[in-house]
Each structure stands twice: as structure tokens, then as C-alpha cells.
Amino acid sequence: MVDTAKPTLDAVFVGHRGALVRLLARMVGSVATAEDLAQEAYLKVRAAERGRPVDHPVPFLFQTARNLAFDHLRRERRHAAVMVQDLTAEGMEEVAAALPSPETEVGDRQRLLRMETALAALSERQRRILLLNRMEGLSHAQIAERLDVSVSTVQKDLKTALLACLEVFARLDREGLRVSPRPDVL
Hints:
The chain has 186 residues and is mostly helical. The protein is 73% helix and 0% strand.
């Protein structure tokens, strides 16, 4: 008689752990990180099994592990872009500042002028809500508490502010960005 019982996740993980770690190590370049990602994949699949049965645990485990490896690599790339390791204060002075190209600088100035024009069209409360949310990353509840208004007021004003900004941007696009630069901005 042939045993057709589906293997448990534990049996799948133990049976495929070596191949899984090797795959992940090739992807991320570190066996230690691969071990961590394999364990995290196991835990995620285990959690997913609680919600619904997993019909094909081997491919599900491997795909989960690959997704975790891609997420790890994206995080590493972001961190590498902003972090410089083993650089002293004296070394920082010797690093050349990256200067934007003239085209980039002009584009940045145009975007800044568009944003200033859009913000100027908003009420003071709408402007504060938009800046607190988008620039400082505050939640609707935090903004409501800070400004002593209801959360629904924050939501309504934020939606209105975003729509008004989009309208200003669209109008400026149609008009070819005819915005007079303020001398103190340039």
C-alpha cells in the first residue's frame, strides 16, 4: 500500500533545509543570513497553515524564502545607500559632495515651485495637516491630537489638500509651468 499522506511542515523543512539554505546563501551571500531567512520562512509558512491548509508545502516554503531574501536584499540596498562605514570626521571632509546635473537642478527647482504654489493655495490647517502627515510622518490620530480636531477632520482636510495639490500640478502642467520664482527660494 502506498502512503499518500501529506508530509508535515516539520518533515518538509527538515528534509529540504539544506537545499533551502544553499539557495538563500547564493542569493544573499551569507550562510548565517540564509539560516535566519530559512527559519523565518518556516515560521511564516507555519503561521499561514493556521489560516488555511497549504496543499504544496515545498514550493510554498521555497517561494516564501525567496521573497524574504528579496526583501532582505532591498533593505540592504537601502541601508547601503545612506550608510558609510568606517569613515572618520576627517574622511568625511575629503569626500566630494555629489552635485546634481544642471538639468536635475532645474527640474528640482520647478518641482519646488510647483509644491510651493500648491501649498499656498491651501488653508493654514490643510497645509499643516498635509505637512505633518507627509513630512513628519504623523498618523491621522496624532495630527488630530496635536491640532485638537477630530480624526475625520484630519482625513477630510488631508484628502482636500492632496486633491488641491494635484489640481495645481495639473494646471501648471497644462500652462507649461508659468510660475514666478520667488527670489528667496532660488
